[in-house]
Amino acid sequence: MSENENSKHLAAARQPMTSERVEPPSELGREIAKQLRALYSQQVSEPLPDKFVNLLEQLAKSERKG
């Protein structure tokens, strides 16, 4: 991307969001949202890895010691 194109993209990103009317999601949008919710729910329900739990316990111990 050229420097001029990059400047245009940055300028567009800095524009305040407008209150333009948002169209309701299409059938495809609803299906994507459904699949994302299912994936997220699956990930949230999985247990934390032992290594991560151990790290959290170590952090808690070090915070208690002061």
Mean pLDDT: 83
Low-confidence stretches: none
Distance between the termini: 50 Å
Main structural class: mainly alpha
The helix content is: over 70%
Describe the structure.
- The protein has helices at 3-14, 27-45, 50-65.
- It is an all-alpha fold and 66 residues long.
- The chain has a domain at 26-66.
- The termini are far apart.
- Helices cover 71% and strands 0% of the residues.
- The model has no long low-confidence stretch (mean pLDDT 83).
- The chain contains three helices and no strands.
List keywords for this structure.
3 helices, 0% strand, mainly alpha, 66 residues
Topology:
Elements: H1 3-14, H2 27-45, H3 50-65
Short recap of the structure:
This protein is mostly helical and 66 residues long.
